[in-house]
Amino acid sequence: MATAQKDPVLVVLQLTGGNDYLNTVIPYNNPLYQDNRKAVGIPEGQILAFDNEYGFPSYLAPLKKIWDENKLAIMHGVGYLDSPRSHFRSMDIWHTCEADKVGTEGWLGRVIREFDPKKENVVTAVSFGPCLFRALAVPGVPVACVAGSLERYGFLPNIQEPTQRQQVLERFSRMYQPIEGSGVMEYLGTTGLDSLKGADILKVAPARYKSDVKYPNTSIASKLRGIAQVHLAGLGSRIFYCDHGSFDSHAGQNPLHAKLWTDVSEGLDAFMTDLRQHDAAENVIVLMFSEFGRRVRDNGSGTDHGAAGATFVLGDRVKGGHYGEYPSLAAERLVQGDLNPSMDFRGIYSTILDKWLKIDPVAIVNGTYEQPAFLH
Amino acid sequence: MPLTTVSNGRTYDWSYAIGRAAATGTGFNYPQTMCLGNDGDIFVANRGNENNFGQRVNRLKLGAPGDEELLAEFFTWGEGDGKSQWPFGVAVDSLNNVYVSDEWTNAISVFHGNGTFIRKWGRAGSGDGELLRPAGLACDKDDNVIVVDSGNNRLQVFTGEGKFLAKYGKAGSGDGEFNQPWGITLDTAGNIYVADWKNHRIQKLSSDGTFLMKIGEYGTVPVASDAFAVTYLGPHVSTTPPAEYPKAGLLNHPTDVAVDSDGDIYIADWGNHRISIFDARGRPLTNLMGDAQVMSKWGQQSIDANPDMMKALRRVRNLEPQWRFCFPTAVDFNPKTDEIIIADSQRNRLQIYRKVRDYVDFQANL
Amino acid sequence: MANHDNIALMAHLMRRAGFGASRDELEARAAKGYEATVEELLNPESQPPVDPYELLRYQPAALLPGGQPPMGNVNYMYYLVTTKRPLEEKMALFWHHVFATGNSKVDNYDQLLEQIEIFRNNGMGNYRDLLLKMARNPTMIFWLDNNQNHGSAVNENWGRELLELFSLGAGNYTETDVREASRAFTGWTFETKIPRLPYGRFPWKFEYRPEDHDDGVKEFLGHRGHLNGEDIIDIVVQQPACARFICRHLYNFFVADEPQVPAWSLEPPRDPEALDAMAKTLRESNYEIRPVLRMLFNSDFFKNARNKHLKSPAEVVVGTLRLVGGYDIPKPGYGELSMQPSYMGQDLLNPPSVEGWHTGSEWINSGSLMARINFVAEQLGNQSLPGVRAIIERLKAKGTLAPDQLVSECLDLLGPVEVRPETRTELTDQAKQWGQLSWDSNPNAQTAAKRATEMMQLIVATREYQFA
């Protein structure tokens, strides 16, 4: 397993709910920004400028640090044609790469199947969340879903007394022994034992983990810490998935957006520091996306569902900088009041697949897309 | 469609709407009840939802249409002092202290008018002073708090500090008995009016809890054959009137009641999606159905920011469903302005009518 | 007192025709008799419907929940958990499996709940009428793009799925039939609805636009004429394949797991005789569903099909919540509970595609197996829930429990659950570690209750428990 440790790893952080692009990468010198953002505009004094055009709001300070290190790529105007502006539909499109019909296979599920066609490692992909994200879902492809803390992951977490627990799990293992030729019962047996094995494997991660890095006490930070624990344990995991939200800031946007991004950027800062201290950052990149951006003009308190957004990739092997073009805010260039997408999200996936995970992207993303060159 | 309702010598003008769907800030999230403060501001309790978002009391400044302003938000979702799970009733005493009930934690929380938490009291149970799903609240002239103890099918009276003083009523359908009562109001003489929800009636009690009278009987409003249900539970709207003329005085799960300075009684006829008006002796007068033909100020901001919504609105054949009440939960009367304020719960807004006193019968030949 | 076989058979009926039942309910029903219970299930009017006002009283956000979970799920779960008309609700779920429509595209739980309400109210009635209601259902029209099916530009999505997934099954029609059926449904669309901003959601309303309807001559399954959508449905139900297709769905859902729908044109049914008998009943009753269900539940092939069906996540969650009790009003946390089936692979109101959920062993993968076992175990481990207390009371009434007695009684009260001898040995060995359980003092009774819930958790973790 030690050799697997240096294989390229992808961490996906999903910003659920539709992150407001305009208030994340702020075109602060554009008068149209102030015009459209009378209620939720970020004042210039609270902007960390990159240059004389764009900047982050001050609550993204930890991310600005990574930008200054030249390890954060910002993809501008990301989306796809005919954005449906529905959370569900949009998220589905991002997860399945099917813009015109309801897709049944997640793009990362296909990746996992390529990595481990014989299902030899049940922790090739580890998801931190209560459910299987659709991006990871392909029938028959195992994914370990950690709903709560990694420490409590496993069967029957209610039975905690150590001796009871050990006995009960041994019984479980014996009750699930294969029954030759029994069809469904045999399948259940294999699956149960796989699952038990996954839990046993993941159990070692918190035990092996030692770190001086203090993660903030937020849900996203504890998910990222869990990812760091599994990654550092060298279990051969290649895909990690987690989410944070909800970024659906229809109302009271400014305090909400600030809180969410403080959580995300502080969590990422701790995560990257942790990996670097363990000399385990080189083979990790983090992809951060949201299903859509938000309306250009605010509604007096927040912003409603929009189209184009920003996507971020960060890591020590990432070539920092701007990629693509910030879509025009001019009224005549908007589509239904939204920024018009200028980069297809499947191009970003393609770069990651082709240049990082070394997999042919065409079959995964259902086509050929221009690849932004954000990797060294 | 007319914006004025005339009946039995009374006239009601639709005035304006306040609000929009919003989990925080300028708007509401399933507004349940409201209460006018001493300075004319209004406190609105929002139920929120299972995303644990939206629960709160908003304090709003009222004025002419379009003057509304959000002044404060408090009793937001959470555990501990000043936080809520299932906010419901709200009442204000003579010192502008705000009392709010929480139907899940079985407690009454008290705040200063600016939203600062003062104290809370109440515990779950059915003994004297114990509460089960406390719903509507009212403050009497001595600043005692009358709590609709809905799960125990009774009213209880407390001091503002939470000391138990009295209880009235028990479970049942007889006079002075209740079945999951909900909203409450007091008239100027201190009589108590309670929306007796599952008995489909309003009961009027004297200030010492003696039964005085009841209004209403169970019934649903007849629906035209081509009617279009705005939700699967109504309201139904149709371009043709129903074949059958609605019987007067029917109520379907009434949730709240208000009394105006003339003694007329306004009932939030929740399940029939209307406000039913009765005179002081309980005779039916007329109904208000909701007339929000003009967009609220905050609603217009949403429309302005979303050109696709604007386009869709222009293509809609019949906007009537948007004007009508959808499960109105509460009604208040402001004696200083003669305004009738209705919490149009499923539409996340207040609709405001004015009882007109200088109305001249209309001129036929303008 | 009903004997053990009667209880076991009644438990089987209630698991399949409903979502399980407490031991008290099973005993009462067994005393009333099997056929009488079937009749009561088939005629739910004798029991009160779920009171939607009670739900809205406490959770107003469940009425128009919009596009984001979980309030739509809360609404649906409330009905599933509290209904006194279990077969009515089970049939609604059945049709939701067949006419699979998902929030991933519809983005509006209000509309999906309205569809469930149609299934609830018509699920045991006439299939032809239900199919027509679906053809006019705006949610279905949007889901399968019939609003983009124009006289001048045909969109075949609805026309195809109508034949392939909702009535006949692949192999029983031609591509020409798909085309002609689609033409017949041109102009079946909905009115522009009031947009959701700023006040919340408004529903769609069906609209027929004659100017957008292709009124030309069509040829469909041997019929020729100026056919419209209703004609197509009438022709469809005349096909023998139609009755067999619907009955195979019913067999898969109620009796025993069949292969997935796309394989039906290739793989023979598990029990051809049963299917023939069901299809005959359906045709002879002019596509009334109730007579088929009556015949099915009273048949030997049903009674002998115990444990031949892998529980769906909805059956796992709803059955457990009804067993443990305490969820009669939607308390805070109901949102999370109502999302549990999705964690096990069945996101209610959001099936993965128009094909619906793949059932049987496809419910199981390493993540979903852990989710289902842990959920049931957590509920049964919670002694504050009334149904769990009731089970413990029954155990207590048995007095001192030797290890094999503890196992027998727990297996009995949780089903009865039938396990293989090997499984039983493991359970008994575990119970032997704990020794004899007695209730004679407070500390002993506490230990006994704790061990009993641990035994139940181990039982629900068995493979056997995953079957119904």
List the topology elements.
The complex is a heterotrimer of chains A (376), B (366) and C (468).
Chain A: E1 9-16, H1 31-36, E2 47-49, E3 55-57, H2 61-68, E4 72-79, H3 87-96, H4 107-115, E5 125-128, E6 144-146, H5 162-175, H6 184-208, H7 219-232, E7 239-245, H8 253-277, E8 284-290, E9 309-314, E10 321-323, E11 343-344, H9 345-356, H10 362-365
Parallel strand pairs in A: 1-7, 1-8, 4-10, 4-11, 5-6, 5-7
Antiparallel strand pairs in A: 2-3, 4-9, 8-9
Helix pairs in contact in A: 2-8, 6-7, 7-8
Chain B: E1 4-7, E2 10-19, E3 31-36, E4 42-46, E5 56-61, E6 69-74, E7 87-92, E8 98-102, E9 107-111, E10 117-121, E11 134-139, E12 145-149, E13 154-158, E14 164-168, E15 170-171, E16 177-178, E17 184-186, E18 192-196, E19 201-205, E20 211-215, E21 217-218, E22 228-229, E23 236-237, E24 250-251, E25 256-259, E26 265-269, E27 274-278, E28 284-288, H1 297-305, H2 307-315, H3 320-323, E29 328-334, E30 339-344, E31 349-355
Parallel strand pairs in B: 15-16, 21-24
Antiparallel strand pairs in B: 1-2, 2-31, 3-4, 4-5, 5-6, 7-8, 8-9, 9-10, 11-12, 12-13, 13-14, 17-18, 18-19, 19-20, 22-23, 25-26, 26-27, 27-28, 29-30, 30-31
Chain C: H1 4-17, H2 23-32, H3 34-42, H4 52-58, H5 71-82, H6 86-98, H7 103-106, H8 109-122, H9 127-135, H10 138-143, H11 157-164, H12 175-184, E1 188-190, E2 206-208, E3 218-220, E4 223-225, H13 229-238, H14 240-254, H15 272-284, H16 289-297, H17 300-303, H18 313-324, H19 334-338, H20 340-343, H21 366-380, H22 386-397, H23 403-413, H24 421-434, H25 442-460
Antiparallel strand pairs in C: 1-2, 3-4
Helix pairs in contact in C: 1-2, 5-8, 5-18, 6-8, 8-9, 9-13, 11-12, 12-13, 14-15, 15-16, 18-21, 21-25, 22-25, 23-24, 23-25, 24-25
